[in-house]
Amino acid sequence: MLDPSSSPQGAGPSTGTRRYSRRRLLGYGASAMALAGLPGLARAVTNYKGLDVIVVGAGLSGLHAACLLQEQGLNVLTLEGRNRIGGRVYTLMDVPGRPEAGGEWMGANYARMIDTARRLGLEMLGPDEVSDIREWCYRIRGEYILAADWPDHPLNPMQGDDRQVLPNRMLFTLSHKNNPLSGQPLDAWIRPEFARFDIPQTQYLKEYLGFNEETIRLMNVVIHTDHMDNTSALHEMRRYAVGEFSARLAESRPDLPAWRQIKGGNSRLPEAMAASLENPVELNKTVYAFEDSGGEVTAHCMDGTRYTARQVICSMPYPVLRKVKFAPRLPQRMERAIEEIDYGTSIQVHFLLRKRFWEIDEMPASMWTDEPFERFGVHRRGPNGEATSAVAFINGNEAYKYDLMNDEQVVEFTVRALERARPSLKGALEPIGIQSCHREVHGGGDWVFWRPGQVGRFAGQMREAHGNIHFAGEHTALLERGMEGAFESGERAAVDALLRV
After folding, report:
1. Would you call the peptide bond into 328 cis, given omega within 30 degrees of 0 as the criterion?
2. Where are the alpha helices (DSSP H) in 55-153?
3. What is the mean pLDDT of residues 60-87?
4. 261, 130 in Cβ contact below 8 A?
């Protein structure tokens, strides 16, 4: 488990510095401790003629690894398949209010990420400074329900004190009850004693927590996998255990915000990290093959270019890696993991607002529903909480149907569903864009999720190097999740590469 003293509250940055440092590398996590006895190796500048390390992927994990390796004196080049920096961190800079279409909030446990932002001179804002979606109304089985009416409403399927839990909080609050991983080290989810929970989440909710079918149906609306029947309960337990750890850190420092964003948009962080690299990130470089000769690795790109280095750090998500060739071939167990492990699905449809429709029907502007569009949120990111834009956010099993549509059909289907459910929306929405990591060739999905039985089969193998190729990305993190998990994985991969250069 991470020591709370390594949290952003416990270790402030050195004033006036905007660079990565060796102290920073050695101060994070157990993996970095491997360098403690190798100061000469870690700091030495190699005599190798050419690149020392190629990093594939300019998301948070790849950029963190590249910055750390550069600070140790290595010649590093980062390749990115997209035409932009940041991966799944993606601020919609051209949309009023600059909403986040990817990684949104940094929790109190995001020590590496918050520290990096500070060192690069970026200002952070807490929830009180970023007005956004605050109040929901609910549409369940065709009926609109206000938050104040939910506890006593006949469609509320829960019992006792659980009836106070609002629908948009049900998944997190109820799944978190009696969590076996609560208070355990953050890597406990891969320990054999918890393997009995590597079962379908639906089964766990019924047999261990006693929830009825309707409660489970409502919890399934916003699950960030594909469906509870196909999600490991151990995966969900881990998610809530990390959230609990973050909450404990936040409680220990009530003078600091529990959640933060980068002022001006979270994309400013990966952009600043990329700008700190001596070798500029090469964009539009889609890698389709790796060839490891034993002494060096060549990355082959779709545009015909090739790049060779002594080591490679690959931060591609597994759904993308399925299309990449390796020579020599990956071990069979690694191939199986890449083939079987998936990322969560979602699609966002963003809108400008033509009128204040909520003043017509006198209901909260944002909706949480059990209908095909699932959530519709009005961003209030303008001065004094002024409404700036809106988004329909569909994830999980409901998002798959959008794979059968082109972008125009996605917009038409979503607008039609919204207007049918809420007549005041007619003429209120101007579509401005679609965002979906699942539909994007370089994305593969939102974040890794584990199906029943997969934790036991694969969790211990995802951090293994293949010759001179090392794997990073949020999906390989052992302790943290989300954006901080990406930082953790980049750090670990950087250490692995340093030890072999």
Report:
1. yes
2. 60-71, 111-119
3. 97
4. yes
